[in-house]
Design a protein that fits this description.
By secondary structure, the protein is of the alpha+beta class. 32% of the residues lie in helices and 32% in strands.
Length: 268
């Protein structure tokens, strides 16, 4: 079967500061309207639905899409200094991009992130980067076993220091490992490698079901960047002079944090 690889932004959250120092409990910040305009939310997704609650300290939220494929815009009238947070969940981002394409509207993440970081003085608060490797013959279970046996190890791509097994966790069932985690979810950088084929085949409603059915093997490498690292990545993206370099930049960012090598041959 043909080998296929793809890199994408799976999920992203962005924050824009609110200029007003105080807000009324029914007041919507001007920045919310500005965000709607930048992302063309109403043209692409229709009118949002006001939510009865928000989270992470925010008091108000608007939802675009559905519960299973949503985008949230959140703010706090009690604490305007928290800014306006726009959260693209994985399925919500796909819905947004699909509907934009159907309406012949371009979604340029380099341009959008640049506007948030440069024009609005905001930042990226979280960005998840997904790399799909299809029909490459990779097995998550085999990788996990070779890590345990000391045949493979993860190293930091910048310092070349080994990442100890104590920072690596695995989960699976029926005696087979399906997922490898590197680092803690609470850290600024977190890696997940998992059997995407098995996950996708577990539900026919999965957006990847048909693809997975027609593949021999399919693993996903998912890097989750938050807090200071997400801020840096957002600023770096905004400063890119060539939008075509966005995904090669993101791939490079992953390898700055994690490289898998064979101990006996000292190669990737």
């Amino acid at each position: 079967m043909e080998k296929i690889n793809n890199i994408s932004i799976d999920q992203i959250s962005l924050m824009v500061p609110i200029k007003a120092t105080t807000l009324g409990n029914k007041q919507i910040p001007d920045e919310v309207q500005a965000i709607k305009h930048v992302f063309k939310f109403n043209q692409i997704l229709g009118k949002p639905e006001k939510q009865n609650h928000a989270f992470n300290g925010y008091t108000d939220a608007l939802r675009y899409g559905t519960d299973s494929a949503k985008i949230l815009i959140m703010w706090s009238w009690k604490q305007p200094w928290m800014g306006v947070s726009t959260v693209f969940y994985g399925q919500g981002k796909k819905l947004y991009e699909s509907l934009a394409k159907m309406n012949d509207m371009k979604v340029d993440w380099h341009e959008l992130i640049g506007k948030i970081c440069l024009k609005f003085k905001g930042h990226v608060s979280r960005i998840d980067v997904a790399v799909d490797l299809i029909n490459y013959g990779f097995s998550v279970d085999a990788i996990a076993n070779k890590l345990k046996q000391g045949k493979y190890q993860f190293i930091n791509g910048v310092t070349k220091r080994a990442i100890g097994l104590e920072k690596i966790k695995t989960i699976g069932d029926s005696g087979e490992i399906d997922t490898i985690y590197v680092n803690s979810r609470q850290s600024d950088s977190f890696l997940r490698i998992y059997n995407k084929r098995k996950e996708s085949l577990s539900s026919k409603s999965s957006g990847y079901y048909l693809m997975a059915k027609n593949t021999e093997n399919f693993i996903r490498i998912e890097a989750e960047f938050k807090h200071r690292e997400a801020h840096r990545i957002g600023n770096n993206i905004a400063e890119l002079t060539d939008a075509r370099k966005l995904y090669s930049f993101l791939a490079n960012r992953i390898t700055q944090h994690w490289i898998l090598i064979e101990n006996d041959k000292e190669k990737k």
